[in-house]
Amino acid sequence: MYQRSVRLVGASLLVLALAACGSRLDPNEVAQAGGPGQQGVVGDGTGVVAGDGSGGDTGGTGGTGGTGGTGSTGGTGGTGSTGGTGGTGGTAGSPTTGKGSSTGGVKAASCAGFKNQTGITDKTITLANVADISGPVPGIFESSQQATRAYIEYFNSQGDICGRKLAVNLLDSRADAGADQQAYVKACDEAFAAVGSMGAFDAGGAGTANDCGIPDIRAVATSPERQGCKSCFATYAISTGLIPDSFAKFMAQKYPDAVKNAAVLYINAGAAVPNAKSMAAGYEKGAGWKVNYVQGIDVAEFNFAPYVQQMKSKGIKAVGYQGPYQNTVKLQQAMQQQGFKPDFFWQDPTIYDQRYLQQAGSAADGSWIYSANALFEDRGNAEVQLYLSWLQQVKPGAIPNYYGLYSWSATRLFVEKAIALGGKLTRASLVDALNKTTAWTGNGAHTAMNLATNSTPPCLKAVQYKSGKWQQQSPGNYMCGRVVSSGVS
User: Residue ranges under compositional bias (Gly residues) (predicted)?
Assistant: First the structure.
């Protein structure tokens, strides 16, 4: 009903990272996780963040995923998904004025006529964040809830919207369409808007969000149904059939022979299938590549060796993959075991994650990604450093990833639009404002995104992992080129 011919080019993690996590899960469990009609349990998730600042979880495990600023570690706050409780103030060095401040330096409209409404009381504006937290891969999109909480903590440490602090209800969509739908029923009834949400089966709540008109500013919209929802937007906006040619041309200049005999492999499920085929066709059409091997790998496949052998026999010199980073590790390790070393290996930013590096080990060396956002290693990018700093404030030890960064961006977007509307803030007026947003960069966190049309951005970075770190290899900030129609949708 809410179809739009749009899916996510970088859908590799979204498709089955949560439903498969490589081949670790039993196939029956995988099928059950995403099956139609499955009714998940929506977490209560009331995470009120309505003080001045530094409540947080008691910690976490894993590396920090980058060399960015660490900020303060914050208080010990509540555990689980209860959000911060306010407290001792903001992170040292956070800007209080201008574009880098929590208000983005937006001129505040008059608050005259401001009315309490769904999710808004005299003291609080309640938002919702819906993400896959439990399910086949626990915590798969926890970074989106962490980032949303982090921005709300940041904002509440500095100001308010017409006298009201922000609060957030953290809801669990459980990697399940039924749970996503239940979560959006709750969000429609209790929250003014949803921000920073992230789920692989987000079709479930698309109709609910559309019908109730709740502004839904997501990190990514993963299904055509969600992308067709009239009140839903994504700060990472991409169309399946439109492929930017900048990365493909950069690699063609660097590896002119390799791109004439390339392979594209993908997890054989969901949106990864058209996305991989669209990328292969787009690279051929836009940059003169020749992709001679396009192959899906089933979700339950344990043995990657036959696919590696096929590539060896075909003399493949460049390998691309679309799928969860756990499967990337299995593919690259199989390549390593069979002594197959193409001229280059590439993927989307799914593998731009400290956990991928930890699992892949030496197999990760030399890998390339294309990225539409700034790197966590970029100490000169103030917005990225704010994200990293405040992430550690709410969840010490949390590992950042690009889904979290786009959730941070989505929460900032809500704040800036709400402040600009002032006393005219309603669900409908916010949706109207978002429909006019054509070049949103999240204060420099990522390349310009057109939320109004959900168009693929033409600008990317080329980044390589070598000498133990991710390094941008392309010139300038972003390479900008054409957006090519692949003919695949």
Answer: 34-92
Q: What is the 3-state secondary structure (H, E, C) of 224-287?
A: HHHHCCCCEEECCCCCCCEEECHHHHHHHHHCCCHHHCEEEEEECCCCHHHHHHHHHHHHHHHH
CA distances from 429 to 95, 421, 426 (A): 28, 8, 5
pLDDT value at residue 489: 76
Same-domain pairing of 232 and 326: no
Q: What is the mean pLDDT of residues 12-34?
A: 37
Residues 231, 317 within the same domain: no
Query: For 17-108, where are the alpha helices, taking DSSP H only?
Result: 27-34
- Secondary structure letter of residue 452 according to DSSP: T
The four Cα atoms 357, 359, 360, 364 give a dihedral, to 10 degrees, of 0
Measured CA to CA, the distance from residue 405 to residue 436 in angstroms comes to 22
Q: What is the CA radius of gyration of the chain?
A: 21
Confirm if 451 and 412 have CB atoms less than 8 A apart.
no
Select the highest-mean-pLDDT range: 6-15, 36-45, 49-58, 302-311. 302-311
Please state, in angstroms and rounded to a whole number, the distance separating the CA atoms of residues 70 and 50: 23
Q: Please indicate, yes or no, if residue 30 is contained in any of the structural domains.
A: no
Instruction: Say which DSSP state 196 is in.
Output: S
Query: For the chain, what is the domain count?
Result: 2
Q: Tokens for 463?
A: 């980044």
Least confident of 38-52, 177-191, 285-299: 38-52
Distance CA 283, CA 488 (A): 12
Question: What tokens does 355 get?
Answer: 């956990």
The range of the structural domain enclosing residue 387 comes to 35-236+378-434
Residues 6+ apart with CB under 8 A from 356: 325, 328, 329, 350, 364
State the CATH number of the domain containing residue 134: 3.40.50.2300
**pLDDT at position 399, please?**
94
Return the ∠ at Cα 129 (arms to 356 and 219), rounded to 5°: 50
Per the structure block, which two tokens stand in for 286?
Answer: 């836009």
Confidence of residue 144 (pLDDT cuts 50, 70, 90): very high
Residue 26 is assigned to a structural domain of this protein: no
In a domain, 264, yes or no: yes
pLDDT at 49: 55
CB atoms within 10 A of CB 357: 22
pLDDT tens for each residue of 397-427: 999 999 999 999 999 999 999 999 999 999 9
Choice between 300 and 104, residue whose per-residue pLDDT is larger: 104
- Separation between Cα atoms, residue 370 and residue 9, nearest integer Å: 11
**Stretch (H or E) spanning 403:** helix 402-421
